[in-house]
Amino acid sequence: MATSLLAEVAPGVFRVSDTCRVYVVVAHPGRTGIAIDFGSGLALDLLAEMGIDRITDVLMTHHHRDQAQGLPRAVDAGIRIHVPPIERDLFDGVAEMWRTRPVDNDYNLRQDRFALVEPVPVHDVVPEYRTASFGGIDLTTVPTPGHTTGSVTYLLEREGATIAFTGDLVYAPGKVWSLAATQWSYTETEGAAMTALSCYTLLDRDLDLLLPSHGEPMDDPPHALGLLAARMRAYVDSRRPLPWDLRARLEQPYLRLTEHLLLNTSSTSCSYVLLSDSGAALVIDYGYDMTTGLPSGHDRSSRRPWLASLPALRRAYGVRDVEVALVTHYHDDHVAGLNLLRDVEGTQVWAPQNVAPVLEAPRDYDLPCLWFDPITVDRRLPTGAAVRWREHEITVHELPGHTLYAAAFELDVDGLRVLVTGDQQDGLGIPGQRREFLNYQYRNRFRVEDYRASAALYRRVAPGVMVSGHWEPRWVDEPYLAMLEAQGEEVVLRHRELLPDVLGGVADGILARIQPYRSELRVGGTRVFTVNVHNPSDEPQALVLVPVVPAGWRATPEAVEAVLPGGGDLAVEVAVSADEQPRRRVPVAVDVRIGDLHLGQHAEALVDVVDR
């Protein structure tokens, strides 16, 4: 059957020529189907021609408007909408993108503004790397970033053939629908390089037919994808000082540090793999695997966790299971991939006791670089103690500095003592020539004496090598340890010289915080907040704390008077109630007075008021 708008391109697979190519897969037996992308919704007008009564589900390859503008029709027809995980906010949360997306002084070239003009409800996100049934039809979802960061390809097995619905990854053999869409930042080639990697990923899938969102079916996938990968590599190299072997990046991402310890060279932050002779593996940190650079923006749709390096881990090192992931600290570039790793591989997350609370409740904290979602911790590791995984013993050490919520891991592997230090310092210092970069940020809750303490830890552990989150492994000798000790003392000296005594040497100057920092409050409901206050004086001080809430809200108690112990902390609970219409990010604050030190409205928290 074929018309100018409709053609059967594979058994039970119809192509509708709309604002994009929409594919309708017919369920057998039955008179229903599912759609891959939706265009303007024209497929709903052609149901009889396809021999079906209704479409039960639509699966989106990406968020662009030419794929999605008809989704309101799908909603009206009762069709379930499934979308790529990292692009969900550009479907049901797109109003927030339009409200907050910078347009002035904008260097973000991603085409997120080619999204829906109004939000649509989403039934669910598709399960990447897994097979699921939609309307009785089994599809496997494969991440294929390139045209957008969150783009996916769907694989269908039908009558002995594997069909790939590739979205806008490939237009024709060696061609893409848009090069502009692959430019994710102002001067780099992240999306173009990702396109090549995605082509290589699909080449390993033994495909029989490619069905693109624009262009004609391609019945020689190895040729079409191989040619596009080669041309895209040449394009990327034409915009770089040196050529980049993207195929080798995908096939050989791991550097062997010792027989049982690997470094993933493809990830944004260094991820390490500890091998067991049993065939199991433990990873240390797992953020953005196989990256080609970080796209512009800080929204969820700009960040792409995936598992692209794992096939090489299995192929080259005989790994059967990724059993455990250890976490040095909570920053997104170290943890973004953990939930996906758990969902796909069944990996357990083990986190130090001082890091786990931030992973599990990120909205409670006012910290930079938080991942969007909670990460369940399967095992909390006490600091200052050893834990055993397979034949390896790992000692966990508290390591504040880069952030208060960090730890180092000490392990002896292949006769070498290794200390994993996260992002504490760069390891590039050369005594007498180049200073070590001490990577502290005040919003990470850095404390003045942290680097003095970490230098003492390194002296005590005496590692042969220190491996970090972003730099080359550092072989450790006496001059290097002495340099770190000297720089740790200098950090203390400089801060004591510069900071006022009245703040008690608190590096970030913050003496009170409210938790949770971000929360929801139902209209007419009440939420209890905890205000943690620190006394910068060695002497007990009178505390006066007054909640500050919007007009019409209530805070109980209206004021708190207490005594702060010398150099100590006090937690105070305040109940806040709101009676008003829903709105987002309403600030509430506390006015703080500690003895004669009146800090004013020193701490705040953000509240989303939602419907009852």
Layout of strands and helices, then pairs:
Blueprint: E1 6-10, E2 13-17, E3 21-26, E4 32-36, H1 47-50, E5 54-59, H2 65-68, H3 71-76, E6 80-83, H4 94-100, E7 124-125, E8 131-134, E9 137-143, E10 152-158, E11 161-167, H5 190-203, E12 209-212, H6 221-238, H7 246-251, E13 254-258, E14 261-264, E15 271-275, E16 280-284, H8 310-317, E17 321-326, H9 332-335, H10 338-345, E18 348-352, H11 356-360, E19 379-381, E20 385-389, E21 392-398, E22 407-413, E23 416-420, H12 450-461, E24 465-467, E25 474-475, H13 478-498, E26 512-515, E27 518-522, E28 526-534, E29 541-548, E30 554-556, E31 560-564, E32 569-577, E33 583-594, E34 597-610
Parallel strand pairs: 4-5, 5-6, 6-7, 11-12, 16-17, 17-18, 18-19, 23-24, 27-34
Antiparallel strand pairs: 1-2, 2-3, 3-4, 8-9, 9-10, 10-11, 13-14, 14-15, 15-16, 20-21, 21-22, 22-23, 24-25, 26-28, 28-32, 29-31, 29-33, 30-32, 33-34
Helix pairs in contact: 5-6, 12-13
